Amino acid sequence: NIDEYTAFAEHLKSSTRILALLGAGLSAASGIPTFRGAGGFWREHDVTDLASPEGFFKNPSLVWQFYNYRRHQALTAMPNRAHIALAKLAKQKPGFLAITQNIDGLSEQANHSPSQLERIHGSLFEVRCTNKACEFQETNYTDPIVPALQLPEDQDIGDANFPLREVPRADLPHCPKCVDSLLRPGIVLFGEAVPQPVTERIGEWLDKGQIDLMLVIGTTAIVYPAAGYIHIARVNHARVAVVDMEVKDGDDVQREQDGDWFFQGDASVIVPELLKEVIGRVP
Ligand code: NAD
């Protein structure tokens, strides 16, 4: 609907404080599967085995292999036109903050200004010590430290036929500082809290008051605190624009209120189109 695009563009032009909540759908066009979407699950494993602290404790070998696989996937992916468009918007609008649930580093690769991007679920490229008293962390982790976890070059580890290995604990990545402790992915696992520095920076931004526009892109937004940010934006008078492949009934996010927009389709197509009046054409 052309009228909707025009109305959105007008509102965007006059908006100075813009908040975005980004989810796995943003990276779908880059070839990274979403969680709940079709084919989004890794083999037969339950999510609690793969992505919870209990799962890690029970079988760190499995969890390390899962995240190595995802890191490998992210390393070979390219940012799409939506990542690029949002990075350009950040340059044009200093009052724009993007909160991403993605851990794939694609917004960073698109040169999204780091001070305008908050990663609430961590990153595939971060690892840290499992010993809470230890401060060790690495923020540019790209390779498995031990050969036992290296991906075979000729096989896709995502392929269900590829046999997983039982990597002995001694061969799993260990903290270089406390030696006995295992390293773990720097991801916010199920049941864990968003790191405090991140919530603080977001809180400071929100405390500045009035929000003109809230963009919700490729996320089911049912996980807290992500879902809460939309509510906060509404309370602060934001008009909400949702971009998603699917229409979902009864979804809080998409339950339209006066002045809201819902744009259905692939984010990599819709987002550059929505932002073009402000950022120009994205090649
Ligand atoms: P989700 O998988 O729950 O939801 C994805 C949403 O994107 C759905 O509403 C779906 O309809 C929509 N979508 C799918 N393809 C799309 C496209 N091409 N364009 C626009 N929309 C599209 O993802 P979520 O809400 O981000 O929550 C999942 C959790 O899993 C998050 O915590 C995230 O950290 C993690 N995750 C991250 C990645 C990543 O880093 N790329 C990938 C999978 C899961």
Features:
283 residues, DHS-like_NAD/FAD-binding_dom, metal ion binding, alpha/beta, NAD+ binding, 2 domains, binds nicotinamide-adenine-dinucleotide, Silent information regulator protein Sir2p, Sirtuin_class_III, 6-stranded parallel β-sheet, 10 helices, Rossmann fold, SIR2/SIRT2 'Small Domain'
Task: Kindly describe this structure.
- With 283 residues, this protein is of the alpha/beta class.
- The protein has 2 domains: 1-32 and 79-121 and 194-283, TPP-binding domain (Rossmann fold, 3-Layer(aba) Sandwich); 35-76 and 122-187, SIR2/SIRT2 'Small Domain' (2-Layer Sandwich).
- Helices cover 34% and strands 15% of the residues.
- The protein has helices at residues 2-14, 25-28, 47-51, 53-58, 60-75, 81-92, 106-109, 196-207, 226-235, 267-279; strands spanning 18-22, 96-100, 117-119, 122-129, 137-138, 183-187, 213-217, 239-244, 261-264.
- The longest helix is centred in the N-terminal third of the chain and has 16 residues, at 60-75.
- It is elongated, with a radius of gyration of 20 Å.
- The relative contact order is 0.20.
- The mean pLDDT is 87.
- Bound molecules: nicotinamide-adenine-dinucleotide.
- Residues 23-25, 27-29, 32, 34-37, 101-104, 121, 218-221, 223, 243-246, 266-267 line the site of nicotinamide-adenine-dinucleotide (NAD).
Number of helices: 10
Shape: elongated
Strand order of the largest sheet: 3-2-1-7-8-9
Order of helices and strands: HEHHHHHEHEEEEHEHEEH
As for the CATH topology of the largest domain, it is Rossmann fold
**Major beta sheet summary:** 6 strands, parallel
Q: Kindly state the number of beta strands.
A: 9
CATH homologous superfamily of the largest domain - what is it? TPP-binding domain
Count of the separate structural domains: 2
**Poorly predicted regions:** none
Keywords: Metal-binding, NAD, Transferase, Zinc
Pfam families: SIR2
Active site: 121 (proton acceptor)
GO molecular function, one term: metal ion binding
